[in-house]
Amino acid sequence: MALSTDVTTSVQPVTVPTSWLAGSAAANSSAHLATSPLSIDEIEALFNLPFSDLIHRAQTVHRAHHDANKVQLSTLLSIKTGGCSEDCGYCPQAARYHTEVENEAMLDLATVVATAKLAKENGASRFCMGAAWRGPKQRDLDPVLDMVREVKALGLETCCTLGMLKDGQAEQLKKAGLDYYNHNLDTAPEFYGEVITTRDYQDRLDTLGRVRDAGMNVCSGGIVGMGESQRERAGLIAQLANLDPQPDSVPINYLVQVEGTPLHDKMAGEKAIDWTEFVRTIAVARITMPKSFVRLSAGRQEMNEATQAMCFLAGANSIFYGEKLLTTGNPDVTRDRALFEKLGISPL
Ligand code: SAM
Ligand code: DTB
Ligand code: SF4
Question: Is the pLDDT score of 55 beyond 80?
Answer without folding.
Answer: yes
